[in-house]
């Protein structure tokens, strides 16, 4: 959803035209609109209502809140607690309106650090999860992870995908990349097979992304001035994810690494470890156990072995 | 709490000696031990029990869990979801034992990113808040913020102090600093008056830190080889915080900036804004309001004016 | 110098109009145009010729080459050695044309990392110095340092100003700032008194900047929407540099820190140290000296003392 | 070369013992000592003399100056110009002594940013090249690039290898890696095939590294506690470089990408471009040319196509 300027009515008229076109394309080609992404620049609250109406009309399966300006530029002029509360109330209104109009799609928030605000409230996966849980919104939202945003927040490429998945909150993926040595959002086409393999492995292990998916939020470089570059970029990036998927399937099906991980955590499958896992023991019992049996044996993490095995699948 | 090696019994004996000495010093000098900080390196779970016993003996008012190794070095060999659950169960055991022995102190978690693990689960304030809320532990813990850790997580110096405070979770402060151009934990003595002013302003605005406080988790540089450097460093850093406190008091008492902030958010004090603040409106009402009254007037953020005024207080 | 699009002739016509206007303003107000800054986007080589003609017409005292796109986006498609050679040849042409038309101004290169190219050849002060010396151009250029660029290259605010000065290459300063926790070029108005003091101290110690100066390459934040914000921002930043200058003058005149530095390096003023300083000793002589006199005594760097003293001047 | 503490004589005795052992091993196994790496911690100048004597005794082919502490922790207490001069005089003494004892090996400087000093003078390849050229030392030294240091300086993995090679200064490679999301020197075993391919491609294109080579400056992770981890790590990393070498050979031999690069720069092979390449044209001629022929046609950089092709070789 786009147009930033103009009055609300003009903006709504534009959105109607765009969505009519989308609906027509959808009907003619059979290709479904899966996402409606809503940035919150102009008339934000009224615009989101319009966006939800359009999502209903298009039968969209995902609705992404891309918090372009949900943050502060300076702490001096900002009441952080008030802003967080306003933001949560706004999300609650969106949930209420969604239910009112019978829109069935998944709501998604896309974490993004450092741009355009000095601090974005949706800095990374854990920031958004903390916010949603604090305001009781975690039942209504999942996360749409963009790896370029993840690396800007100081994490490795697949980090937020793994963390969101561990908390049961991974809903969709903006499949792009940045350069980890740059501090801005380059939105490049993802081409690194290692990265795509890690992402697909996590998606497989959580049983897929439905109704989410992979969305190419990427653009060709400024120097890529031929029309064919657009096609080459999409094909190259799709190939990168396809190779990642094939690698991930083999890794998961052959189960070598998974078996090693299981063995590493085996001590939590019985005895005292099982009681830690279940939360049914106490510090006193643990002390007593260590006094009797000595410290638990340290087992090697074998990171280099895992890395070498992983390389066999690339 | 220190000794890393040896058996549990040796370690406990060492801790007994240290805590007896601390108790004796406390009695003779009247200077209280305010914090017991517990790192989780060797025999972690049994050690924490011992630490809680010592905290009880010393009458400590704060107990800091400094999660030295609560994270992963490689995603290949790690089951993130399992580790988070184990960690939460461990914290629950600590809460249970604390209540059992009648220990009254505040439990604190100290966020720390990137060291020593590639990823620490307690990356920054919001990561810890998300974790605590997910596992229902947020009533039992507050945060001990170390600004050097904050800057390593990609935020400005005072960021996590402000965020923790906004969520009602700021319990104590490790008063040190790093160099924002470096990516490792230098633990320098804090000397920047701007930074100390921002920290003290937040602490004043939330009504103080009790039972927490400022703890100099800092060391002199490797080149500072004179004995007097230790004293100069502590005095210089205390002076820096004292100047920060005086600046912050004047800023808060004179109220110039606070009044500007209030005016900036005034639209949330009445009418539709008040209904957003209270969470008692809906997207439909807001759309209706904008149709009738037009877009709300944008007021200037005036960041440069705030910054100029702030400079008058330094 | 601005206009990016259009043909060379259109662009030149625009530049003629702009420079005529500047000349008129200069004549009417007595305020001189000190810098002509030339970005190298469109028709770069022809445009620079035009820029030099205009600089001559305006009597400019500085000509800044702002290397907006002097770098690579990808190593795959780039011949680094060829590009460096082309760039050096281009600078040589500019030197030749400058001499031909009798333009007396100082040529300046402005280091800039990471934007807009993934790698800029003029990454930081030392990168530019290395380039200039390799191609024999160091006699014809000085550096125009923008501290926001310096922090993006991973250095502290004043770093490139100090390094350029140490190599005798500091010609001018773009007085702005960024946020060290952000990885992009925010071009904010400089408001940190500590930073401005460090910059002015370096400038004083090298005997000034002439014909260079301080140039506000800064813009108000996007949220600063009032007209007065522009004035407040310039005034606030000028005040910040004025306070920095006053602080620096007192630091230099009172000489406390300078005396401490002199004492720290005193061992290089006599004996073997003097011979190291002069380059008139050898490894054999040094070994002999240490065998006879033992290792040189380590003296404390006393960083915390310096920092405490420095704070007295702020 | 190691021992940090003790008197010069003790230190020298230790070094004699170590080097005798190395010599014996060399004779018995036929495996040559290729590098002597000298850190400059204790008795630095005398120690380097000893190191050069040992290098002579062992027939070392490379002598690496690893500037562990060649930098400053604080600008307040530092005379940067003096320190740079002292450092250059020290290197000149080393060159003189090397020639005196007839040592034939290649001198190498290893760039390193941010650790252990806040600023290292040998920050990255270009910093060292600038320093060497300024003090007339560039004929006597090459660079030993450690990619983990390169990424800490804010560049991509292979950046300093490419830049050093472009300036004819690439002498040797410390084959390790870090995590680009971390800001400290993790010295991990290199396992990323993409990275090793890029490094080997550069080495092939410059005709090899002799007398330098690849040196595993890496250590297993703290959690890798089995003895076999050491072997697995070395084997895995060697395999990674072997795959990188095979990929690079195919890329170079098949020449697809190289041909594309040649075509991209074709305009510099004839006409005006050739004159820029040769440095035999002028701004006037170029303006004239553009007036007659219009702007040169922009050709697409086709980065995504290069990246897709590159992926075919991995």
From TrEMBL, chains A, B, C, D:
Q: Which reaction does this chain catalyze?
A: alpha-D-xylose = alpha-D-xylulofuranose
Output the GO biological process annotations, alphabetical, semicolon-separated.
D-xylose metabolic process
Q: Name one GO molecular function term.
A: xylose isomerase activity
Entry annotated with the keyword Isomerase: yes
Keywords (alphabetical) are:
Carbohydrate metabolism, Isomerase, Metal-binding, Xylose metabolism
Q: Its domain of life?
A: Eukaryota
EC no. given is: 5.3.1.5
The secretion signal range is: none
Q: Write out the similarity annotation.
A: Belongs to the xylose isomerase family.
Q: What is the name listed in the Swiss-Prot or TrEMBL entry for this protein? A: Xylose isomerase
Q: Which organism is this protein's natural source?
A: Synaphobranchus kaupii
